[in-house]
Automatic annotation (TrEMBL):
GO CC, any one term: cytoplasm
N6-(pyridoxal phosphate)lysine: residues bearing it: K678
Gene3D superfamilies per the UniProt record, alphabetical: Glycogen Phosphorylase B
Stated role: Allosteric enzyme that catalyzes the rate-limiting step in glycogen catabolism, the phosphorolytic cleavage of glycogen to produce glucose-1-phosphate, and plays a central role in maintaining cellular and organismal glucose homeostasis.
Enzyme Commission (EC) number: 2.4.1.1
Cofactor(s) needed: pyridoxal 5'-phosphate
Cross-referenced PANTHER family: GLYCOGEN PHOSPHORYLASE (PTHR11468), GLYCOGEN PHOSPHORYLASE, LIVER FORM (PTHR11468:SF3)
Listed GO MF terms: glycogen phosphorylase activity; pyridoxal phosphate binding
Entries under InterPro entries matching the protein: Glycg_phsphrylas (IPR011833), Glyco_trans_35 (IPR000811), Pyridoxal_P_attach_site (IPR035090)
Listed name of the protein: Alpha-1,4 glucan phosphorylase
Family indicated by similarity: Belongs to the glycogen phosphorylase family.
Catalysis performed (reactions): [(1->4)-alpha-D-glucosyl](n) + phosphate = [(1->4)-alpha-D-glucosyl](n-1) + alpha-D-glucose 1-phosphate
Species this protein is from: Mastigocoleus testarum BC008
Length: 840
């Protein structure tokens, strides 16, 4: 278990300590108090869930006290605030993380043990908040942790989805989705603030008029309005008093609107309208790295962005009594284009509601916003049909046309007659009925800074996807390689390894991950290596027990744990991994005595419900598993396990137990990846392509400690340009042919030769992601992995060096760069003050 940091324990108990005290006695009293008065139970009636709630509430009390102090300090110091706007926050369970960040995990564990309760079991009762799809949402969560730890005033703004990412079940090998009813047993962590509810308009039309000062004004008369109710969750920093908030908006029907219908006698119609409004925050769209272009999605985006900007403006005016300095006191980060409608919305609020003139409003807007791009995939770029856009947000469409008119006038001056360039830069694409609003172009024009999420990704943005914008304003572009929080991804997720590290080098690594370098000196120490191995072994045993319980598969904990966990997507190439498994299977079948390294292949990840090919890949993995796991002639040398419902909590356990990390996307397709960092931090070695942040991971850990495979990005481009033909690779590779034929003849589908045809056809006749081109390189590299794993001592050495050299990939490093180079914000330390009578 993690070590506690120094927290005050006076040993004395006072009544007010029930909500703030950190002594064992105070904590015990607090938990009993919350059990009684929060859950209405005593120890006779209380269920494990009641105990979980009591612990969570006891931590929430302690955080709220610090939150109040934090908010006061930020106001007293006129601090500039970072607003992180994101449609997704994939937070994972809060309670363990709060115990860690408060530094009392061990103490609470001890207190509970004295009453025969096991903290770790109780923490598992928390329903994980899964308000995100994958990398982008989890990055937002890591960044909130680092912002608070670095004592930066910050608010995360998003949507309080009633249903988070669906729960995945595997039925007969296929993915099935079930709704994630995460709120049905209550949420101990949120506090609602109905008094800060915010009105959002939709539809209708605009009217222009001249005001009493003779100024031209526009009035938006909406078709209907919706309320946003804010729900706050405290976000504690590690070992500091700063507690920021995550503010999520829930949609509720507005009463005024209902009243009209009710008064007109249309009771059922009014209730139906109410349901329409409340639909907005109902469900998270389950697509990752693709867009669905649905009206409800645009409603969600505008809804939370409008609520958030109105909230920012309300507090700014309350504090400064003017909006002239808004951009000096706020930095608004757009997490992808999902909140980029905010640029038009801030213009509307400043001009139409606060009567600012265009030039000043535009100056403030451009200086408030910065935009993070997360993808190079064309199918992930948001483009809304002008028709739909104008119907839902008529005023915003006018504003976007005006921004575009002014922007293109400047462009024309700079590139006279270059009409193609002007068409590419325009915020509007196409002609006539299928005109589209390009949200990435809006984000670029309206932001002061534009960043990619890994060095290679930023370079490709500049050369490719956003090339015209880069040529126009190169000073706007900046790279911010992603990072992950060492609190959740090592301290909380891998207590055995954290304890060893702290024992050896002290605890400074927790907030200064570069300290891990000090582990290098032990890389050749036999005793240390031995302990390092024992820890991985223990983590593997825990995971093996989980797999046995859930999948009823017995895995050999001496086999190599070869893991690919991430969203299912063709470009991530889970299918290439499967081709390798079948290759090994064929080798054993060909020669039963072949000396093959025993491996356990572990998969996890969700497919977007409408993504047929991704779902078929899941079916293939499970079909291969069914054949391979039960074949006695393999003598247990190969096992395949697809773990259903992969989520943050499960991933913590998986990273701790992993030995080989599969990062094999087609070069140039994965913007960064962040799982790659979590694996290496926990001592797994990477087999990977030169894609996204893999490039930088390899630089840091050293080429000799990284298993490189596949084409590089320039090679991919070249091959595509000269006309890639998968047949050329197929016809000359007999091992590959054998693999494809085995799938094709129905070996993994009870003789059904049609089931996997769509996968095989796409490989043989198109192979958009060039699996065949990389097949041989991947297989050769996997063979090197097998040899290396047999050199136990050297493998352990490489594993230690991977962990030791992961300092760069802390989200603390990433966030301090954002603070200095994009947001221009400074830490604001917060003092802790006990209650006093003056608080009344
Ligand atoms: C998403 O999770 C990512 C990009 C997107 O455009 C969307 Cl819509 C969702 C991921 C990238 O695929 C991944 O490479 C990156 O590490 C992550 O965002 C965080 O930047």
């Amino acid at each position: 278990a993690p070590q506690d940091t120094q927290v005050p324990d006076s040993g004395l108990v006072r009544v007010e300590d029930d909500r703030t005290g950190m002594s064992e006695q105070s904590l015990k009293r607090a938990i009993v108090d919350n059990l009684h008065y929060g859950q209405g139970k005593d120890n006779y009636f209380a269920t494990p869930y009641d105990y979980y709630m009591a612990i969570a509430r006891s931590m929430r009390d302690r955080l709220i006290k610090r939150r109040i102090q934090t908010a006061r300090t930020h106001i007293q110091e006129d601090s500039k605030v970072v607003y992180y706007l994101s449609a997704e926050f994939l937070m994972g369970r809060y309670t363990g993380n709060s115990l860690i960040n408060l530094g009392i995990y061990e103490r609470v564990r001890k207190v509970l043990r004295e009453s025969g309760l096991e903290l770790d079991d109780l923490l598992e009762k928390e329903h994980e908040p899964g308000l995100g799809n994958g990398g982008l949402g989890r990055l937002a969560a890591c960044y909130l942790d680092s912002l608070a730890t670095l004592e930066i005033p910050a608010v995360g703004y998003g949507i309080r989805y009633e249903f988070g990412i669906f729960e995945q079940e595997i039925r007969n090998g296929w993915q099935a989705e079930r709704p994630d009813k995460w709120l049905s047993f209550g949420n101990a962590w949120e506090v609602s603030l109905p008094e800060y509810r915010t009105e959002v308009k939709f539809g209708g039309h605009t009217e222009s008029y001249t005001d009493t000062k003779g100024r031209y004004q526009t009035n938006w008369i909406p078709e209907h309005t919706v309320f946003g109710i804010p729900y706050d969750t405290p976000i504690p920093g590690y070992g500091v008093n700063t507690v920021n908030i995550l503010r999520l908006w829930k949609a509720e029907s507005s009463n005024e609107f209902d009243l009209d219908a009710f008064n007109a006698g249309d009771y059922l119609g009014a209730v139906a309208n109410k349901m329409f409004s409340e639909n907005i925050s109902k469900v998270l769209y389950p697509n990752d790295d693709t867009v669905q272009g649905k009206e409800l999605r645009l409603e969600q985006q505008y809804f939370f962005v409008s609520c958030s900007l109105q909230d920012i403006i309300r507090r700014h005016i309350y504090h400064y009594n003017s909006l002239d300095n808004l951009h000096e006191k706020s930095a608004i980060q757009l997490n992808d284009t999902h909140p980029s409608i905010g640029i038009a919305e801030l213009m509307r609020l400043l001009i139409d509601v606060h009567q600012m003139d265009w030039e000043q409003a535009w100056h403030i807007t451009q200086n408030c916003f910065a935009y993070t791009n997360h993808t190079l995939l064309p199918e992930a770029l948001e483009r809304w049909s002008v028709n739909l856009f104008g119907r839902l947000l008529p005023r915003h469409l006018e504003i976007i046309y005006e921004i575009n008119f002014r922007f293109l006038s400047e462009v024309r001056k700079r590139y006279p007659g270059d009409n193609e360039r002007i068409a590419r830069l325009s915020l509007i694409e196409g002609e006539g009925a299928d005109k589209k609003v390009r949200m990435a172009n809006l984000a670029c024009v309206g932001s002061r800074k534009i960043n990619g999420v890994a060095a290679l990704h930023t370079k490709l943005l500049q050369q490719d996807v956003l090339r015209d914008f880069y040529e126009l304003a190169p000073e706007k572009f900046i790279n911010k390689t992603n990072g992950v929080t060492p609190r959740r991804w090592l301290l909380l997720g891998n207590p055995r390894l954290s304890n060893l590290i702290t024992e050896k080098i002290g605890e400074a690594w927790i907030t200064n991950l570069d300290e891990l370098r000090k582990l290098e000196q032990f890389a050749d120490d036999p005793q240390f290596r031995q302990t390092w191995r024992e820890i991985k072994q223990a983590n593997k045993q825990d995971l093996a027990a989980y797999i046995e319980r859930k999948n009823h598969i017995q895995v050999d904990t001496n086999s190599l744990f070869d893991v690919q966990v991430k969203r299912l997507h063709e470009y991530k190439r889970q299918l290439l991994n499967v081709l390798h498994i079948i290759t090994l299977y064929n080798r054993i079948k060909r020669n039963p005595n072949e000396d093959i390294l025993p491996r356990t292949f572990i998969f996890g990840g969700k497919a977007a419900p409408g993504y047929f090919i991704a779902k078929l890949i899941i079916k293939l993995i499970n079909s291969v598993a069914a054949v391979v796991n039960d074949d006695p002639s393999l003598e247990g040398r190969l096992k395949v396990a697809f773990l259903s419902n992969y989520n943050v909590s499960m991933s913590q356990q998986i990273y701790a137990a992993a030995e080989l990390s599969e990062q094999i996307s087609t070069a140039g397709k994965e913007a960064s990846g962040t799982g790659n960092m979590k694996f290496a931090l926990n001592g797994a070695l990477t087999i990977g392509t030169l894609d996204g942040a893999n490039v930088e991971i390899r630089e840091e850990v050293g080429a000799e400690n990284f298993f490189l495979c596949g084409l590089t990005t320039p090679e991919v481009y070249e091959l595509k340009a000269k006309g890639y033909n998968p047949q050329e690779y197929y016809q000359s590779n007999s091992e590959l042919q054998e693999v494809i034929r085995l799938i094709a003849c129905g070996h993994f589908s009870d003789g059904d030769s049609q089931l996997f045809r769509p996968l095989l056809d796409s490989l043989l006749y198109n192979d958009k992601y060039m699996l065949f081109a990389d097949y041989q390189s991947y297989i050769d590299t996997q063979d090197r992995v097998s040899q290396a794993y047999r050199q136990e001592d050297n493998w352990t050495r490489m594993s230690i060096l991977n962990t030791a050299r992961m300092g760069k990939f802390s989200s603390d490093r990433a966030i301090s760069e954002y603070c200095k180079e994009i947001w221009h914000v400074e830490p604001v330390p917060v003092e802790f003050k006990e209650y006093s009578p003056e608080d009344m």
